[in-house]
Design a protein that fits this description.
The protein is built from ten helices and 14 strands. The protein is an alpha/beta fold and about 300 residues long. The protein is elongated and about 75 Å long.
Amino acid sequence: MDRLDHLRIFLRIAQCNSFTLAADQLGLPRASVSGALQQLETRLGARLLHRTTRRVRLTAEGESLLERARSLVHGMEALEQQFTAAGQGLKGRLRVDMPSRIAHRLVAPALPDFVARHPGVELELGSSDRTVDLVHDGVDCALRVGTLAPSSLVARPLGSFAVISCASPRYLARHGTPRAAQDLLTRQHRQVNYAPAAGGRYAPWEWTEDGRTRSAMLPGNVAAGNVETYIACALAGMGLIQVPAYDVQDHLQSGALVEVLSPWCPPPMPVHLVYPHRRHLADRVQAFAAWIEELLAPHLD
């Protein structure tokens, strides 16, 4: 390992607040990570981290080094990328996270195109319906659907998904087809509840009326923790659902699901690509951002 590697390891430990987690993300033995940090501290003549059995935190000297180390490492990576031979292309590991349905239905089938463009990039694709901590989990960028919570992340808007309301013919035969938003309340329609976080609050039923977004909680017999199960419950006749239109296009065409209440559609869902910082953004992250924006464009408003 050279001195730049030691700084990279220091930065990862500082991000994770853990030697073990940093070692896992870097693919190194924990002893190597600990040894590199000790060598860096010896060379600088300063203690950079307070270590306890439960956690790791920066000393005052570590805080002072953090931003300068980040600038040095990112600057060197940018310099290396700038002088990479044109035929060699981008290299390195890229960790991306996104909702499971987008990963399965849109991104995974198109990955041969990304690999053909950037064969030197090693892509790790995480997919879940739960929000990951980009810094703690060592994720380079993530695709987020819906309104973003306030955070320090940099967000790149890509557009928005049109959202529709739908149900199975079996459900509509049993409960009737709602013709107006008021029918949902007066005729005791049921929804499939959705709560991606364990123990989280169920998402309300939403519609647009007179230019305003309105919402109400409908009764429901079942709750789903991911979109795959949410749609499956609708197909089984368990209730009404609201999903991005692209996600159920096949079911609508086959008749397995039927769109309802189109004049009272839910508000669109914004789509963003988020990453931890704007400065010194790696070329491989920029390349993926451009590719995913091109891939999703036909499905976005």
